[in-house]
Amino acid sequence: MRALYLGRFNPPHKGHIYSIEYILAQTDIDEIIILIGSGEKAYSLKNPFTGGERLEMVTTIVREHFNINLFYITAIPDINRNTIWAANVIDLVPSFEVVFTNNPLVQQLFSKLGKKEVRKIPLNNREDFSGKVIRENMKKGDGWRDSLPEIILPLIDHYKGVERIKTLSQTDEA
């Protein structure tokens, strides 16, 4: 059975690897679609990396840690209409039977509107493996590298990710 696992992956971190391992450990799952949400958003504190950068990072992680043949990896733009969002996802990605997410809104949209089975993923060290916390630590310039897979650290440096986040956090407002 094919599963859908979605997130913004801004940036992808060790918690995402744990989630993928958890999904693959389910005896009824043999393929995963990794869907990068908000693919069009970039250069903001919430979404500092471009969809392409996140796609490259996620693909690099999957190639390093998993059998890439078990995955479809893609990005999708937001449509900002919750009533049709699940149908839009279903229309744009390969077919799937189950969605793995801990986001209550996404759970509701897929179970009610998308008519898909939804399963939760046990949280793992959420204090360290949270994109929001990692981006905040990147802004401070400390304590973020250990939360990310080592394989993508050169990409973060190449994108000048820390500098980008620090610049985005500056304001000229008094």
Topology:
Blueprint: E1 2-7, H1 14-25, E2 31-36, H2 51-65, E3 71-75, H3 82-92, E4 98-100, H4 104-113, E5 117-119, H5 131-140, H6 153-158, H7 161-169
Parallel strand pairs: 1-2, 1-4, 2-3, 4-5
What general form does the structure show? globular
Most strands sheet: 5 strands, parallel
**How far apart are the termini?**
54 Å
Number of DSSP E strands: 5
- The CATH class: Alpha Beta
Overall radius of gyration: 16 Å
Number of discrete helical segments: 7
Write the element-wise H/E pattern from the N-terminal end onward: EHEHEHEHEHHH
How much strand?
5-15%
| Strand numbers in spatial order across the main sheet | 3-2-1-4-5
CATH topology: Rossmann fold
Q: Indicate the structural class.
A: alpha/beta
Task: Specify the CATH architecture.
Answer: 3-Layer(aba) Sandwich
**Helical content band:** 40-55%
Q: Show unreliable segments.
A: none
- Tally of distinct domains: 1
Mean pLDDT: 94
CATH superfamily: HUPs
